[in-house]
Specification:
The chain has 609 residues and is α+β, with helices and mostly antiparallel strands. The strands form 7 sheets. Strands 8, 9, 10, 11, 12, 14 and 15 form a 7-stranded mixed sheet that branches. The radius of gyration is 27 Å and the shape is globular. The termini are far apart. 40% of the residues are buried.
Length: 609
Amino acid sequence: MLVGLSPAQESMWLDQLLHPESVNGGIFSVLVRGPVTAGQLRAACLAVCAQSPQLRGLVVPGEGGGPARIAVHPAERVLRFETVAVPAPPGAELTVARQWHRTHRLRPWRLTEQPPIAFALLDHGGQRRTLVVAVHHIAFDGRSKFVFARRFLQALGELRSPAGLREREPVALPEHPSIDAEAAAVVEHWLAADLPHLPGLVLPRRESPLPAGGRVVEPTPRFELPAETCARLAALTGAAGVSFFTGLVAGVAARLHEYGNTRFVLGIPADTSEPGTREQIGLQVNVVPCLLDIPAGASFTDLLAVSGRALALVQRYRRVPFGWVLRQLRQRHGVDVTRGAFDGVGVSYPRVVRELGEVPGLACEWDFFAPNSTQSFDLTLQLRREGGAAYGRLDHSTLALDGAAAGRFTAGYARLLAALTAEPGRPVAELFEAGPEVVVPAGVAGVAVRDEVLGVLGYGLRVGGEEVLVGGVAGRRYRVVTAEGRGLPQGVPGLLAFAGDGRVGRRRAWIDSAGRVRLLGTAGQLRDWMGRRLDLAEAEAALAGLPGVRSAAVGLTGEAGALRATVTLETAGTDLRAWRRAVRGVWPSGWPQVAEVRLVTGPAGGHRP
């Protein structure tokens, strides 16, 4: 049987073709304690796949430019199930299962050869087994985990009963109604949003070296939102006529505003299921971009209203894959938006389901909160609500944030949300954490120093024996502020200013966790476009720091924001391909890619292009 892809599945399949190294999936697990055989567990998995056509389909690429389709096969033919002995001490089984999958089974999916689900049964000994379920998102969303769990436990219970497993008809695949009218409205919405001038997202600077091996997704430890914060938030959102999730999003907006952001996009996964398809396993979720504009002097009450209006648009346009919108903007309107505008921050808030059923004689413990193998955003805030409390974690690209900065992000989110719900009518900026200060030691002046990023700066003041404040005065207190003079959190770039003095310094800077001042380029060397942010002076310094470089110059090639870098080397004969690899190694995450590297080589005094 051949079936068509839904709009969201088609978008995901095209993305897979563009990025074949992407995993684009995740895992969840169940620890089963008690007398059960591997054969019974396998049979229960087979039964769920037999009932769910989405889980036993292989993608068939379109011929002659036609659309791709899914070929649905018998479950037994395509089932992927393995049993592996993996020792684990009691109480650590689910953690060991996460680590085992990441180390031994994390790899890209071949959707034309492999179904979008795979099972691994880890035998820990002593009647303890963990079933690890790996899934590709083309056929599985967050809601599907709970549908799978209920059907799996139901099938396992029947297999262990005298009556045996009941035969069930496969669930019908959902219909995919046309979205043309909605897509046209979404295109008009984003055309009016002035995308070319969308500013780059301001986030803390890395304090550790970039990791080897490229982009990796790491989770922070789980953090808790106290019950009293949640109770106040529930009362505020109820009074405002918005959802609890709207309140959590308003808190995210406030936290990003604390870093100096006033206009930005959040990616929101929206449930596209209908009442008749809600209990079906499949891809019935769509990530919808949500544009937030924070007015000056906004209170938390104001942010609830702003977030409510933005999320209402998410709900209205939830069925339109944004990849379609970007293609329309580029092909019909000449607006070529880079991914930088839409891959910064995502906020996930799936339902938490507890009534899954049970199997007599067995104890089953589920782990639904395992990190995804890959993600679409540099930062994804995973939020859950259970009863009167809520909790979460931050899944972050290691190229965007290191672990320390990610931990400060979540701690600041919990702290700020508590303050906002306690004083919802007060201007949000008044509740921000005071920016850190640096005291210049007395008796220090006129020291020639070399900064690790910008090279020799000339004469200034040494702080902490390492860094420099140009034109500083001994005994003065300094801080990093916004252009309006408001202090910024530690690790966030801003302008260098005197504490208590509204005048801003010429150089941009940030203060790291050790209280050291790190200097960047001047405010005039900062470029924002379509969600990307670039410090031209820092970019030139990154290239100039490579071995054998005499000088480097970086500039923009046009409104699209492409970059042109001219690098002067000491000697001729440099391999251009090797140079491009070297450039990628020093180019920080979030910067636009270099459109051209022009090498000028030759002996001293005789450079040639």
